[in-house]
Each structure stands twice: as structure tokens, then as C-alpha cells.
Design brief:
The complex is a heterodimer of chains A (615) and B (359). With 615 residues, chain A is of the alpha+beta class. Chain A is built from 15 helices and 24 strands. The longest helix of chain A has 53 residues, at 442-494. The model of chain A has no long low-confidence stretch (mean pLDDT 87). In chain B, the strands form six sheets. In chain B, strands 10-7-13-12-14-15 form a six-stranded mixed sheet. Classes of the chains: A alpha+beta (615), B alpha/beta (359). The A-B interface holds A 474-475, 477-478, 481-483, 485-487, 489-494, 496, 499, 501, 503-504, 507-508 and B 8, 11-12, 14-15, 18-19, 21-24, 56-59, 62-63, 65-66, 69-70, 72-73, 76, 98-100.
């Protein structure tokens, strides 16, 4: 965190206000519109983090009021609250509470923090921030009005009182700022909250706009995300400044025990090896100077150290991304949503993981550039899209192969799609302190690309299946409606009995027709598969239906040959024009059947692919 | 054989195909420029041997057959109940036919023509009539028309009519209209209403002893049939006077040679001896007429006419090529440049004399 360090260093030399003024852009306050969004974002991110840490399903309330040429921002949560003595430090000191040497996937590592919003507020309106917090039933709520003393980077309380607050616990912040409220733009409070709702389906968010318009983002899941774990830094990802700080603060007596204790993936044996290679004595860490620390860093690179543990990360998960996307794109009635979650991976000793989703079709605009939703640790990234590794990765995929338009197979694709990418990490490598774009790290780019390709493959499979079905549907209409009508009416005119048309149907169709649908209700999905033999001869083959997992099956009918972990196997034996129905129920969300056949030329089948797996 | 029997034969074919487990289909001549041939006997252009098959193997083909069956059933009902309907009514009635409903009137009009081709009957036999009225005529001829009350009424097409002339009914067959007496010695068919009215006002029907017929653009079947009867039964020569653009040449062609759409009844509608008077591209130059530039559609239409078998003679090839060269077109009324009487005092007499008629 070079800028943070710089900031810390310069604190004594220049006033914090001056520093802020000079670095408005990298801090995310460079325009009136952006400043307002950043203030809301800092407060909401804090609230979500606090709720999750305390195991509370977040209820977040946001209100923006217009007061002359100022805006009042109110953000309130139902989190655990903050004890009175800590309130001034959390809101009234820049960079308070950053613990450099313990790393954890959190929203809070993004943005300079809520205190920057407090500072912006007092610099633009001269008004104090008002914080109300309550830590639980039976405790009073404290309401504190404070400024930041910009010379000392220290809170200055101007008023405090105990108030009655009906809430069980929670925190509320009220800020007056100079800003600009915009609507119908990608970079707006509304879009930020909508995106937040997509990747935080466990949150309930209520938002009141300056014109009084009320927007509610409902909770789609009652499950809190898995709490990410704190981990120690890994030698591959450490920077000199951090290393020096750690050396200063450690209580260990020897260099080797310092390495083994304060770093992840370093055993005592490995620590001794590092010390040996560095050419230093295994002395007390406190005695290490800058030059020696650099040697230590060199030594890290020369030693093979196992990757850091990756279970410290908390992904959103495919099912929840799908839920979130479905909920927030409902009015567009998209045709298909595919998602993918990659296994955790590591760059420079820092664990990270990538999740993606693609929403396709429905009322999404067909001629426009696809919409990109970027997220880092569940926080939407609204600015600097062009500088972000996510955008880069999307550009490097040939989307034409997956049914989207793309000029020359490069650049951002066009078509009715929304692409979502979430990068989770204990330390997201942002391009700047405003934390709106992820830096070009090769490992991250590759993971994003692989994940999106996986999503896109599912999308392509869906599209080609759909095109085939469409064609077959026409034939089906022909034989199920037009032909019987033709027989009935011609018989009526000539005054003879209606002829049987079965033979003609088999001649026209000359295929085995497979048709399916799924009804999702109360967490149970019922899948029905109908097969009609429109060949002129009897057909005998095996039908495979993919399932999420064997344990979730509730009912299967008729009796299958076998239910494997991921597939149900049935025998099918049909005379010409004979029909059969197969169905199963599962206790899971289930959108699309994947059907396969074996023992019949797939050319003769509409609605299923050739089975390529083991029999 | 009656129209009803012929229509039933189509239904029988479809029924028998189904009963014999064959995919039902019907064959019909290709109705396009590529499939019209000159009939030496009648001296008109008719459909050739190319046939297309409408088969239920495709969804579009199956829809066609179903619509055909429903239309046959509808006609059968009309014949049995002694009713008639307009082509537009046929289109609207199909709204109640479920899957067999027509998507546009163009489709139902075309199907009515298909049935004429398949049965060798006229749509009048199917009790279907067009909604457009026939054109107007003015000239020294006495016509006897059977009115809707069943009375025979004689009409002198100058003395018994107003300035708008006598309106041709949609049925111009002998049971409806007979020619009683004629003193005019030729027929001049005029494309636009404005020019027809100009000639009437200038009393050109009297001065040139002609029967003036207003074509109203692309002439209705009844107008063409009426002209043919004047030509065939009364031996009156037919002269066509239109605007000078590719679309007007097609109007002439449909009168003289038959239209591609109705090539199955060309011998019944076309007047092979009809002559084109103008406005020709040469007239644009010779009379220095006010003109408009050809549009791209005009040019495409002219080029298409160069490959249209109906225009393959020296006169047309030369005139069309000339027009493509000068890239100009002119309306009949452009002659007003020289005064309102110029067309009747100078242009038409000169042109008629050129063609060997007294004006």
C-alpha cells in the first residue's frame, strides 16, 4: 500500500486536508457526482461488513435529501453497533484501524474509508458528521457530532448525547456534502445499489431518492456468506514497507521464528532455509536494518514456498449469483443465465478467486455493447472500466464463437447480454487508491478468461439447443395442428371418413422427438420429458438426463435402469407414433434439462445430444 | 364441368393423398416472368410448363394447402347458398379459420387466382368479385345492361350519361352487358383520370369519333375484358395512351399481352392488337416535354422490361434503350405546357395520323 504509507509519512508534514485536496481524484472525490456516490459507497460497504462480521442479515436504509445546494446522506444499518469510545476513531481519523500484516477478504480494504467521506463533508459544507450507534437491547444509543482535526488527524467531538432508538442495534451516519445527484446513468447511486444487491443477495436494501421515490432491493437469500478468514501474509506477496513494519512490531526473538510465526506457509525449517540463503545471522528481528530487510526479500524469491491457504476466501457461489442476477434483471425477463465459480488461485502469494455470470436474451438491447458488471470483494466498481483487468479479459475472448457480435473477434462484444465478474481476494491489486479498477495481473486475467469461457460455453449450448428446437417446433406445429386439420376439412368436403395420418406424419417428421419442461416451485423442481417416435420403425435406445446430484432426487418415474451421481438412465422402447413420458423431482434449483441418447443415431433425434460419457 | 366440381377435385386430391399415406401436395404453374410463353393461337402471353409443388412436407406448404381447403369450403358454401363475396371479404372471413387464416389480402387474392388456374374457371364462377369498380367510358356506343332488378336498360354512352361517363360493372360478360349499336370507329384507353377528363371536356370523343376508356392506373380485369370485347366483337382498334414511364408500359402490356399475374386467363383478357400511342421517350424529345429524372426504381424496372418476353420487339427495345439514355420520364399532363387544348388539337391528331387513323 504505497500511497497509504506515503499518506502516513506525510501526515506530520502537511495537513491532512491539503493532502486530501491534492489527491481528490485517486480518493474518489474528484467530481460532485462521484463524491456523492463515494460517500454512499463507503457507508454502505462499512455497514455490510459490520453486519456480516456479526452474523446479522443486513437491513440497510439509505436516504438522500436535497437541502438547497447541499445534500444530506443518511445510511443506517442493523449491524452490531460501535461502542461509544470507538465511534470518534472509526469516523474521525483517516486510516484508523488498518492492520497491514493481517489480511482478510473484506469490503473495507477498499476505498480510503468512511472517514474520507466525513472529511469531504466538513471540507465542502463545514458541517459535522452525525453518528448514532447502539450496541444492543438495554443499551442506550449514542449520538455524536464530530469533525476531523485536520492538523492532527484526530476526531474533535462537538456534541454528544444519549438518545432513544427503537432499533435493537445498529449504526446510522448522517453527512452533509456538496454533490450532485444523477439518475439513469451507469455511474449513479441507484446503479451502485442495484449492483450491490446482485452480489449481496442476503442483504435487504431500501433507498429513498431526493425526489422521494422509494426503491427496495429485496433479500433473495437468508444465508449469510461464509465469513472470510484472516490470514498472515505470504512471503511472495510482501512489500518492503510492510516487512519493516512487521519487523518493528513483532515480539519474536529470532529472525527464523519471526518468519515462521508471522507468515503463512512458512515452517520453522523453511524459515531457517530463508535466513541461510539471505546470508543474515539468525538474530533478533529488531536489529534488522533496511538493507538487511531487502536481502530477506531477495531470499524469499529464491526459496520454494508452498502457496498460501485459499480457504480464507468467501465466494458468493454460483447459485446465489444466479439468484441475484435473476432478481435484479427480472423486468428484462432474460432467457438464460449461466454462472461459474473458479477454484481459488494465487498470484504473488496472494489468494484470489474469480466468479462470473452471463445474462442473455429477453428484453436486453440487441444492438448495444454488452453491459459489464465488475465487482471486487462484493463491491461494485463503477469507474475506470477501461483500465480494469476484467475489461481486458473480456476483450481477449473471441465472443463470436459464443453467439455475440465482436468486431474482428477483439474488443468488447455487442449483443443482448450482461457480463458479471467478481474477483475476491485478501488483497485486491487495484490500479490506484480510489480502487475502481483491478490492475493487470496475468493470473487474474487468465482466471477471469477461463471462467467467462465456461459461462459462454453454457450459453452457446443453450442457444444452439434453442435454434434446433425452434426448427423442430415448426414441424411439430405442422403435424400436430395443420395436418389433422387438413385431413378433417378435406374429408368434410368430399364427404368421407377422416383418414389416419400417422403414416404421413412419420414421413414428414422422420425423427424421434424429445420435448421437456421444468416447473420450479417451493424449492422443488419437477422435470418432465416427453418422447414421441416419429420414425417409421420401432426405436430402442437409452435416455440420459443430467441431474445436479443424486442425493437431491425425490422422485423418478418410470423406474430408471440406474441413477448415477449426476445422471438418470432410462430404457426407451417405442413403436412408430408411440409416446412416452419420463419425469423426476429434485430438491434444488434447476433451470435446464441436459438430455442425451445412446444406441440411436443422434441425427434421428430432436431434443437430445449424443451421450459421450460412460455407459 | 361446374366450378364446384372442379374445386372438389382439388379437395379430393388432398384427401386421397392422405388416405393413401402420401404427403399431400398439389402442382401449380410457376407464376413468374421466367414462365410465360407466347401462345401463337391466341397471340397472347400465357404460363409455360414450369410447375411448382405445394407440399405439406414444409410448414409453409402445409399452411397453403390448409388455406386452399378452407377457401374451397367457403366457395362451396357460397355457391350452395347463392351468395357472392368480395376478395376483401374473403380475407376477413378467414379470420375465423384458426390456423388457416390468411396473413394478408395479397395471400388470399393470390389463392383465388391459383384456384382459377387449377380449375380453369374464373373467380366470378367462385362467386368472388373484386371491390374495385371498373373504369369509366365515354363515346358513341349504345350498351344494354341487365340491372340488379333484372331489367334490361339501354344506355347511350354520350347522351345518357353525365360528364363522368358510363361506369363499367365488375361483370362485363354477355349475360350482363350487350353492345347494341356503335358509331365510334376506335377505342382510346387513357391511363390517368386527369387526362380522361381533359379529353372529355375538350369533346375529343366526338371530334375523333372514339370511345374513351379511363384505365385508372393498372386496369381492373373487367376493364380489360370490356376493352377486349369492344375489339373482338365490334372490330374496333384499341389505342393506349399513358404516361411515359416504365410502369405505364406495363399497363399497356397487360392490356395487349396479358399480365403475368393473370397469364392463365390472358386469352380472355388481353387484346393483342392494342397499340401504344404514347407518351413515348421519343415524344419527350420531339415535343420537348417537361420531364422528371428517372429514379433508381424506374431504371431497374426499365432494365427488367428489357428481359421481359412481352417487350421483345424493335419498337419497345429502342424506346426503352432511349429512355435509359436520356434518363427522363414525363406524365401525360406534361403536354399542358403548350396549353390545355394542345393535347386534343395537336398531339393526339398528329400521333393518330402517324399510326394511320383519322383524327
Amino acid at each position: 500500500m504505497p500511497i497509504a504509507e506515503e499518506l502516513a509519512k506525510k501526515q506530520r508534514q502537511i495537513s491532512i486536508a491539503e493532502f486530501f485536496e491534492r489527491n481528490k481524484q485517486i480518493l474518489g472525490f474528484d467530481s460532485l457526482t462521484r463524491a456523492l456516490i463515494t460517500c454512499v459507497k463507503e457507508a454502505v460497504d462499512n455497514s455490510l461488513d459490520a453486519c456480516e462480521e456479526a452474523g446479522i442479515l443486513p437491513d440497510i436504509f439509505i436516504k438522500i435529501e436535497e437541502h438547497g445546494d447541499e445534500y444530506k446522506i443518511i445510511v443506517e444499518d442493523n449491524g452490531p453497533g460501535i461502542i461509544k469510545s470507538q465511534i470518534p476513531h472509526v469516523f474521525g481519523r483517516l486510516l484508523y484501524g488498518s492492520r497491514f500484516h493481517y489480511l482478510k477478504q473484506s469490503r473495507g480494504q477498499q476505498g480510503i474509508g468512511i472517514s474520507a467521506a466525513v472529511l469531504y463533508s466538513q471540507l465542502t459544507t463545514g458541517k459535522p458528521a452525525i453518528i448514532t450507534s447502539k450496541i444492543g437491547e438495554g443499551f442506550p444509543a449514542h449520538k455524536i457530532e464530530l469533525f476531523i482535526d485536520t492538523k492532527r488527524n484526530f476526531p474533535r467531538i462537538v456534541r454528544e448525547e444519549m438518545v432513544h432508538w427503537k432499533k435493537r442495534s445498529g449504526t446510522k451516519i448522517e453527512l452533509f456534502i456538496k454533490g450532485k445527484y444523477v439518475k439513469n446513468r451507469k455511474q449513479s447511486v441507484y446503479e451502485y445499489l442495484k449492483s450491490t444487491a446482485i452480489v449481496n443477495p442476503h442483504a435487504f436494501i431500501k433507498f429513498i431518492e431526493p425526489d422521494g421515490n422509494e426503491i427496495i432491493f429485496e433479500r433473495a437469500s437468508n444465508k449469510l456468506p461464509k465469513q472470510p478468514k484472516e490470514i498472515k501474509p505470504h512471503p511472495y506477496g510482501i512489500e518492503l514497507g510492510t516487512l519493516l513494519k512487521m519487523i518493528k512490531e513483532t515480539k519474536t526473538q529470532k529472525l527464523s521464528s519471526f518468519l515462521a510465526k508471522e507468515f503463512s506457509s512458512v515452517s520453522l525449517q523453511k524459515a531457517r532455509e530463508i535466513v541461510k540463503i539471505s546470508g543474515l545471522n539468525d538474530k533478533s528481528p529488531q536489529e534488522i536494518n533496511i538493507e538487511e530487510a531487502k536481502k530477506l526479500l531477495e531470499a524469499f524469491k529464491k526459496v520454494k514456498i508452498i502457496a498460501p491457504p485459499t480457504d480464507c476466501l468467501s465466494p458468493i457461489g454460483e447459485a446465489l449469483i444466479k439468484k441475484g442476477l435473476r432478481k435484479e434483471t427480472m423486468q428484462l425477463s432474460p432467457e438464460f443465465i449461466s454462472t461459474d465459480t473458479r477454484q481459488p488461485s494465487v498470484f504473488s502469494g496472494i489468494p484470489f478467486m474469480v466468479e462470473t455470470g452471463i445474462v442473455y436474451g429477453g428484453n436486453l438491447p440487441k444492438e448495444e455493447r454488452v453491459e459489464i458488471l465488475r465487482f471486487a470483494n462484493r463491491v461494485p466498481l463503477l469507474y475506470q472500466e477501461g483500465d480494469c483487468v476484467i475489461t481486458e479479459a473480456i476483450k481477449n475472448i473471441d465472443w463470436r464463437r459464443y453467439g455475440l457480435e465482436q468486431k474482428g473477434g477483439k474488443g468488447l462484444p455487442y449483443g443482448p447480454a450482461i457480463i458479471l465478474v467478481h474477483v475476491a481476494s485478501i488483497n485486491i491489486p487495484f490500479t490506484s487508491e480510489s480502487k475502481e479498477a483491478i490492475a493487470h495481473v496475468e493470473e487474474i486475467e487468465k482466471e477471469i478468461r477461463l471462467s467467462l469461457q465456461q459461462c459462454a460455453r453454457k450459453m452457446r449450448a443453450h442457444l444452439s439447443k434453442k435454434a434446433k428446437k425452434e426448427k423442430a417446433k415448426n414441424k411439430f406445429l405442422l403435424i400436430s395442428k395443420i395436418l389433422p386439420e387438413l385431413a378433417r376439412k378435406s374429408a368434410e368436403i368430399v364427404g368421407k371418413p377422416i383418414p389416419s395420418i400417422d403414416d404421413v406424419i412419420t414421413q414428414i417428421m422422420n425423427i424421434v422427438w424429445i420435448d421437456d419442461d421444468i416447473i420450479n416451485k417451493d424449492g422443488i423442481a419437477e422435470s418432465k420429458i416427453r418422447i414421441i417416435n416419429y420414425k417409421r420403425k420401432p426405436q430402442k435406445f437409452i435416455l440420459y438426463a443430467e441431474i445436479p446430484s443424486k442425493e437431491k432426487i425425490i422422485e423418478v418415474f418410470p423406474k430408471p435402469i440406474e441413477i448415477k451421481e449426476k445422471v438418470i438412465k432410462w430404457d426407451v422402447d417405442l413403436k412408430p407414433t408411440e409416446k412416452a413420458e419420463f419425469h423426476f423431482k429434485i430438491e434444488d434449483e434447476f433451470d435446464e434439462n441436459n438430455l442425451y441418447v445412446l444406441g440411436i443415431d443422434p441425427i434421428n433425434v430432436v431434443g437430445a445430444e449424443k451421450w459421450e460419457g460412460e455407459e | 364441368m361446374t366450378a364446384l366440381k372442379e374445386l372438389k377435385k382439388i379437395a379430393e386430391k388432398i384427401y386421397e393423398d392422405l388416405a393413401k399415406s402420401k404427403i399431400p401436395s398439389i402442382k401449380i404453374p410457376v407464376r413468374a416472368k421466367s414462365n410465360i410463353i407466347f401462345d401463337e393461337g391466341y397471340r397472347v402471353w400465357k404460363y409455360g410448363e414450369q410447375k411448382t409443388t405445394r407440399s405439406a412436407v414444409s410448414l409453409a406448404g402445409a399452411y397453403m394447402l390448409l388455406r386452399t381447403i378452407y377457401t374451397i369450403d367457403f366457395i362451396k358454401e357460397m355457391i350452395e347458398k347463392n351468395k357472392t363475396s368480395t376478395l376483401r371479404e374473403l380475407y376477413y372471413i378467414s379470420e375465423g379459420w384458426g390456423e388457416a387464416k390468411f396473413n394478408s389480402q395479397d395471400e388470399s387474392d393470390k389463392l383465388a387466382e391459383d384456384l382459377e388456374i387449377l380449375t380453369k374457371k374464373l373467380r366470378e364462377d367462385f362467386k368472388l368479385r373484386p371491390e374495385e369498380d371498373g373504369a369509366r367510358i365515354m363515346g358513341d356506343i349504345v350498351i344494354e345492361e341487365v340491372t340488379r332488378k333484372g331489367e334490361k336498360r339501354r344506355i347511350h354512352c354520350q347522351d345518357d350519361v353525365g360528364d363522368t361517363g358510363y361506369g363499367i360493372p365488375y361483370n362485363v360478360e354477355k349475360e350482363k352487358i350487350r353492345f347494341i349499336e356503335v358509331n365510334a370507329d376506335k377505342v382510346i384507353a387513357v391511363e390517368t383520370g386527369g387526362m380522361f377528363d381533359r379529353l372529355v371536356e375538350n369533346r375529343f370523343d366526338e371530334k375523333s369519333n372514339s370511345i374513351l376508356v379511363h384505365l385508372k392506373g393498372q386496369p381492373a380485369r373487367s376493364t380489360r375484358r370490356f376493352i377486349k370485347r369492344l375489339n373482338e366483337e365490334l372490330n374496333l382498334p384499341v389505342i393506349v395512351f399513358t404516361d411515359g414511364d416504365p410502369w405505364s408500359y406495363r399497363i399497356y402490356a397487360s392490356i395487349a399481352y396479358g399480365a403475368i399475374k393473370t397469364a392463365h386467363i390472358s386469352e380472355y383478357l388481353a387484346t393483342p392488337s392494342a397499340q401504344f400511342l404514347g407518351v413515348t421517350p421519343s415524344d419527350i424529345l420531339n415535343y420537348d416535354l417537361p420531364s422528371d429524372a428517372l429514379t433508381q426504381e424506374d431504371i431497374n424496372a426499365l432494365k427488367a422490361e428489357l428481359s421481359d418476353p412481352r417487350f421483345q420487339d424493335d419498337f419497345w427495345i429502342n424506346e426503352i434503350k432511349l429512355q435509359l439514355e436520356i434518363k427522363k420520364k414525363a406524365e401525360q399532363q406534361a403536354l399542358a405546357k403548350y396549353g390545355l387544348d394542345y393535347v386534343t388539337d395537336v398531339y393526339l391528331p398528329e400521333k393518330l395520323a402517324e399510326m394511320g387513323y383519322d383524327a
